[in-house]
Amino acid sequence: MRKLWLIFAQTTTVGLAIWFLATILYPQWLQPRAIREVITLHEGNVASAPQSVAASAPAAHAVTSYSGAAHRAMPAVVNIYTSKEVRSSRHPMLNDPAFRRFFGNDDAQRASSLGSGVIVSDKGYIITNNHVVESADEIEVALADGRTAEAKVVGADPDTDLAVIKVDEGILPPIAFADGDKLQVGDVVLAIGNPFGVGQTVTMGIVSALGRSQLGINTFENFIQTDAPINPGNSGGALVDTDGNLVGINAAIYSQSGGSLGIGFAIPASTVKQVMEAIIKDGKVTRGWLGVEAQDVTPELAASFKLKQAHGALIAGVVRGSPADKSGIRPGDILLSVAGKDIQDSSAMLNQVAALKPDETAPMHLFRNGKDITLEVKIGRRPRIAQR
Which residue ranges run through the membrane (predicted)? Predict the structure, then answer.
């Protein structure tokens, strides 16, 4: 027994001595395999690394550049220059013929502005913001390849601040639309436009928020918020994903200085496509109309109405003779869903109703006097006077 113990002790001593020498002379032998693989990659010996690790190296390198997305989208983004005649009030002294002899009779001046646009059809249709081309007498478009052309307004939709213009310059490269339902907060996006007139510029950021509304910018609001730098001149430009597909049209920024503060807003591609197709087809956008004045349901209102959750739109007023009036909707009702889609607030209600076709009959679920009721409402046509 004593002999076995001596053999064990000697073996252990020799093993510890070997381990001690190995840690000093060849420390890499004792590192875990994963760490050795990383060191091997770092030293450039990719061929000796396992296939799975080597395959991940190009993927990690690819996300360091978005040049592919930029080069795919940039040819479809144009610069827009507009001008219009502005008449200023004439000083009383200019009524004197002697003064008019030297200063002339023309009180008109030309004001110019700039913006951006996105080619959405190879037939020359370009989408931009309504405020970029509104009231313009002359519209000039500068294409990415250096060509310039005069454009005409096909139609505009002030409620979403979108407009479609057209140039006749042969076949143009249209942008591809992204699937808006797949866009998520945190996704990387690129903003392409003509800030301050310096020329086509690409900036990068992320999607900061989705579904921003009640900002007082447009009648219908469902903005993408992004921190990609957007400045004056970017209006009407493209917001694209990392594949170069259009996710939105840059429309506005939150700023106290006129420059970017990291809060920009873009109109979603789904809205852009809907408005664009309607304008190209009919020259205008036709929307559904209910004829109510609504407000959000706050937790206090929900408690007073004995509603389980604070959601829906409280009907504060009904226009006489409107579709709502004819169908029996009353002030004090809480609209919970339209055509099977739940309503979270008054803004969502406005958007849901506007998406319906005039003369279409839609079921509306309401909460009245503690009870759930459903009414069939024949949707009307949104009056033009209601547009801003």
Answer: none
